[in-house]
Amino acid sequence: MEKEYICIACPIGCHLKLHVGADKSLEVSGNKCKRGEVYAITEFSEPTRVVTATCRLGLENLERLPVKTTKPILKDHINPLLKEIYSLKLEAPIRRGQTIIKNFMNTGVDVVATRSAG
Ligand code: SF4
Hints:
Order of helices and strands: EEEHEEEEHEE
Bound molecules: iron/sulfur cluster
Distance between the termini: 53 Å
Radius of gyration: 18 Å
CATH class of the largest domain: Alpha Beta
Largest sheet: 4 strands, antiparallel
CATH topology of the largest domain: CPE0013-like fold
Number of helices: 2
Oligomer: single chain
CATH superfamily of the largest domain: CPE0013-like
């Protein structure tokens, strides 16, 4: 099996090919450096993303507050995380960097406010 990725670890954007052998061995080509190999293997075996979203706040001048995860989170955890974020109603005042959700699903990832409000 072969998968293709574009490395996002730097602006060059190498086109990567990941070959998965019958014995489950992984071989990466197209990368100009080691980071591309790590990127392709991580994308294949445990893809993660930094999640950005907004939480209900309900201020007259700011209905929703932008938030983001402190680290990339496994793609499988994104939907449950968004469900939790969208179920919250925050109370002002909130300062930038304040933790909104601590250690989501014991992943060690927090969700923090990306701006202050109130
Ligand atoms: S493989 Fe290396 S050079 Fe290519 S985009 Fe990724 S980080 Fe940049």
